[in-house]
Amino acid sequence: MKKEEQKAKQTAKVKDKGQNDLKMKNQNASKNQKGKSKNVQGVKRKKEEVEEEEEDNSDESEDESDMEEDDSDVSDSGEVTGYTDHNKDWLKPAKSGEADSDNDDSEDDIPDDFSDDELSDDDSDEDDENSDDDDEDLLPVEKKAKKLEKKQARDKKLAEKELMTNITQTEKYTLPSGQEVEQETNQPPDITLVQNRIKEVMGVLADFKEKRTEGRSRQEYIGQLRKDLCTYYSYNDFLMEKLMQIFPLEIHEFLEANEVQRPVTIRTNTLKTRRRDLAQALINRGVNLDPIGKWSKVGLVVYDSQVPLGATPEYLAGHYMLQGGSSFLPVMALAPQENERILDMASAPGGKTTYIAALMKNTGTIFANDANKDRAKAIVGNIHRMGITNTVISNYDGRIYPTIMKGFDRVLLDAPCSGTGVIAKDVEVKINKDEKDIQRCSHLQRELILAAIDSCDAKSSTGAYIVYSTCSILVEENEAVINYALKKRNVKLVPTGLDFGREGFVKFEKHRFHQNMKLTKRFYPHTHNLDGFFVAKLKKFSNKVPVDPDKQGTTENVTEQQETAVVNQSSEDKGQSSEEISQKSPETKTMKKKQTNVKKDKQGKSKWMSTKGNKKQFKPGQFKKFKNTSKGKK
């Protein structure tokens, strides 16, 4: 009905235009008759031609459907706007438009096999109504372009719908059966098959409700994914399970980042040079480098070097230190001040110690300790090369350090760990680490952090801060250790001062930690392009050890633990077992008491240490005799 109404309107417009043209031409003809009375026959011929043209136009208007394009060329009043020359009668641009419109209509009339009822019925009607209103002011080319755009949009919708139907048919993934699993165990694994299965299983887990197969649980998919990741990346099952707990959504990115080495980074020694001068000197030697980032003013990233970085004249002169970017973070969190007394409890090979000395500008005192004598030798070499003069190097077990020395303003503890954050450097961590290793590391770290807190002085005017860091990403070695220290000592968590990094876990699996645990920082290789690292900063507010209600005299227990640690260290050197030490520990205590009593007895009998013996040597009368004899001689 709409199309018939449109056709009727168009035919009426065409007839009106034809009548207007006739009037104009009749007027022109009458003028010509007055001026040219002799050429009457020529005028008649012109009238006949005009009538024939009108008939042709009326016939064409009945067949054509889209005659709105002629509105731009010829106005309703009959005035020609498209052409202004005298040959307007035989110049007819409307015919080309009409022909094109015929082609468009013929294209629209072609049935579409892929057409949708929803798209064709409602949308087409609305589009036609809107187009009739908007297309009146458009040129013919613009109208054609608009039609093409509408057709392309319609085709695109249909293609997307078709694609979605195809995806829904093929996206359900079925897990391998028991026989297929047995065949894979007997044969060497197909890497491409495993890789495709990893992608498919991760896609199912991303939208588990719709993509899972019936009768299969989430645990089965997770177990298959863990098994495939272990075979593809060569991890043991224990470590892969721990990593999947920490990174439920980013496990693939983390594992891929561990397969790539971290960029080589160097730290400028500000005691001897500036970063700008060092960068220029190394660039002249063929080293391609850039600043490590906005968070550090002394770090440089080395992309490529034509010379070995550990043998340049600048390195030998102590202008820089080869050091990982993540090792800057604990020292930046510690924020040492000038003229302070600082302890680096596990300092080998000396990268953090030299950074602390540079920040202190060679003032104050640094005690660099390490339990391994061979590793402590590396500290000596680096300190001499970097030109540091305020450092004392010691070789003690960190657990007994409070018995040797206390009263430090700040303490840095980069604790020994499992190394799960530096897998790119040590690939053996993938296979060697198990649950016993993690428990052993965690127990040692708890003893060390208590010793570090006891070594710090809460009454320090400038510090009383302890920084704890590890190159591990496991919760058992990080948040669990800090939570233990918060319960056992009078310390609290404070902000690290680092602008980037992820917050520590407050809730993890079944664990619930202190609410301020979010002040700690975690760093990952796939997000920060640094080694996996954990940094926590504690402030000690009291030197008193909190007393547990179950145990009385905790201070005595602490001293006993430190004494047993000394005995354990000496017995390990002699090759004794821990059971023999536990049996002999009460005997050693009694022997120590006897030895102290004997020493006291000896001190009482000696001439130089006892005051009683000195008094007996000189009697009061002797002084008088000495005086009398001296006077007589005079």
From TrEMBL:
State the Gene Ontology terms under molecular function: RNA binding; rRNA (cytosine-C5-)-methyltransferase activity
Q: Where is the composition biased (Acidic residues)?
A: 50-76, 99-139
Keywords of this protein's UniProt record, alphabetized?
Answer: Methyltransferase, Nucleus, Ribosome biogenesis, RNA-binding, S-adenosyl-L-methionine, Transferase
Q: Which GO cellular component does the record give, naming just one?
A: nucleolus
Q: What are the Polar residues biased-composition ranges? A: 554-570
Primary location: nucleus
Which Gene3D superfamilies does the record match to this protein? Sun protein, domain 3, Vaccinia Virus protein VP39
Every SAM-dependent MTase RsmB/NOP-type domain range: 254-541
| InterPro entries in alphabetical order | MeTrfase_RsmB-F_NOP2_cat, MeTrfase_RsmB-F_NOP2_dom, Nop2p, RCMT, RCMT_NOP2, RsmB-like_ferredoxin, RsmB/NOL1/NOP2-like_CS, SAM-dependent_MTases_sf
Cite the binding residues for S-adenosyl-L-methionine. A346, S347, A348, P349, G350, G351, K352, D370, D397, D414
User: What are the catalytic residues?
Assistant: C471 (nucleophile)
Record-stated family: Belongs to the class I-like SAM-binding methyltransferase superfamily. RsmB/NOP family.
Q: What is this protein called?
A: Ribosomal RNA methyltransferase Nop2
- Native organism: Mytilus galloprovincialis
